[in-house]
Amino acid sequence: MKKKEVKKVLTRKSLEGPYQSPKGMRDLIGEEVYNYQGFFEKAAEVAIYYGFTPIETPILEQEEVFVRGVGEGTDIVDKELYTLRTKGGDKLALRPEFTASVMRAYLEHGMQSLPQPVMLYSSGTLYRHDKPQRGRYRELRQFNLEILGSEKAINDALVIKVFISILSEAGIKEIQLKLNSIGDKDCRPNYRRELVNYYRKNLGKVCVDCIERFKTNPMRLLDCKEEQCQEIKSKAPDSVSFLCEPCKRHFKEVLEYLEGMDIEYTIDHTLVRGLDYYTRTVFEIASKQKEGSDIMSGLSLGGGGRYDYLGKVLGSNKPVPAVGVALGADRIISSGEKLTPRIVKKPKVFFIQLGYEAKLKSVNVIEILREARIPLAHSISKDSLASQLAMAEKLQIPFTIILGQREVIDNTVIVRDMENRSQKSISLKELAVYLKEIKTVAKK
Q: Which of the residue ranges 55-64, 227-236, 340-349, 378-387 has the most confident prediction, judged by mean pLDDT?
């Protein structure tokens, strides 16, 4: 590269300044990573107890999976989908949600032939080119539950119950459950017609987005969050009043199951959720609104519903009755307790090494403790005894292991009790057993 070109590049870089993560996306560092690991680990543990098994789907899917599955006219497809075209001309999209991907996998891998229902859980990152809000990002993280292959109302109540159990484990016990039934292909057209007639008379009072929704997807009118539309929305026709007998019976059973589980709920006739594939039961769970400055209170923590027609939309020869829920990990972690993953253990031992020879052998000592599953901390890059002891005291670690030049020669270490300053020389072969014994004594 010529000098002029190098100078030009350097000048351009200096003008750009330091690079930053894309808007609405962020780095997770240290404790933040552990918080997410801890939450997903606990959520998976609860899900497994209730009979769910894991599934992982690709971050990229064919764009059509979401256009057909989620639905044109939805905000996700029209405004929020990250799309790309490959060198071979394929149209792909970053997944904005899990359900369409899970249904695609269910069909592709012939899960219809398995004993039904198939109960799956998934977790990870999703991508929506949305306007970042409180606790919501363009790169978001969710935990999902799906029950595929059964139309029984008990499944609707079950995913709600598991959702609430996961929230409870995360320290969120004061919640509000809202639910509704939006009917099926037999009764929803009558409701849709009534809704259109009602909004046609009020189009002059709603926002620009609602005018567009009126043309393309009238059910989405009830999903609007704009302040100017709330009064109109609150007086809209009630979908439950238009339910056919099978839908009424199904909704009644869902409510009876919830009452049998002692789960409080409120019926909200404006609740429709934002995706086309929902049918019959829809629900949302939020933290209870609190007085004061808690900015996360009252925000939705997740929701879901039944999606009995999604399978046919994605190519199934017959309907696949299904129900699912998505838990917003970002908001849950911000609102609840921080769960420590099993991989992170509070250190009981601090390893101190002194001198070059000790550094050479230090990894062997760490490996002995790792194989014995004894959690430890160390500062292998530091040299002085004082600085390493100070770090052990700051971390309030009860025991230290000291490896000096003499110990390297003797294949021993010094184990020091940080409380009474007593210490003992122990051979490396006996180290793990000795530490487990003194840890047991310390607990008593």
A: 55-64
pLDDT band, residue 74 (cuts 50/70/90): low
Q: Is the pLDDT of residue 442 over 60?
A: no
Query: In sequence order, what DSSP letters do the residues of 108-170 get, joined into one string?
Result: HTTGGGSSSPEEEEEEEEEE--PPPBTTB-SEEEEEEEEEES---HHHHHHHHHHHHHHHHHT
Q: Say how many residues make up the chain.
A: 444
Read off the amino acid at residue 349.
Answer: V
Tokens 């400055």 label which residue?
293
Torsion of CA 389, 393, 395, 398, to 10 degrees: 100
CB-based burial label for 367 (10 Å; 0-12, 13-18, 19+): exposed
- At 13, the pLDDT band (50, 70, 90 cuts) reads very low
For the question of whether the overall pTM of this predicted structure is more than 0.90, the answer is no
Under 8 Å CB-to-CB from 236, ≥6 apart: which residues? 195, 198, 199, 221, 222, 269, 270
Highest mean pLDDT among 6-10, 153-157, 271-275, 416-420: 153-157
Strand partners, 92: 62, 84
Tell me how far apart the alpha carbons of residues 334 and 285 are, in angstroms, rounded to a whole number: 15
Place of tokens 């210490």: 423
Kindly provide the residue ranges of all beta strands, DSSP E only, lying in 157-299, ordered along the sequence. Answer: 175-181, 266-267, 279-287
Q: Rounded to an integer, what distance in angstroms lies between the CA atom of residue 253 and that of residue 437?
A: 56
- Contact call for residues 435 and 400 (beta carbons, < 8 A): no
Q: What is the pLDDT of residues 304-352, one digit of tens each?
A: 999 998 999 898 998 899 999 999 999 999 888 888 888 777 888 999 9
> What is the average pLDDT score of the chain?
86
Amino acid at 183: G
CB 275 within 8 A of CB 70: yes
Instruction: For residue 154, give Cα distances in angstroms to 259, 265, 273, 302, 407.
Output: 12, 16, 20, 19, 65
Q: What is residue 98's three-state secondary structure?
A: coil
Q: Over 80: is that where the pLDDT of 247 sits?
A: yes
Nearest to 99 by CA among 332, 329, 322: 322
Quick one: tokens of 303? Answer: 């929701």
Helix (H) or strand (E) holding 415: strand 412-417
| Dist. CA 350–CA 402, nearest whole Å | 9
CA nearest 369: which of 349, 342, 392?
349
Distance CA 214, CA 200 (A): 8
Round to whole Å and give the CA distance between 2 and 225. Answer: 56
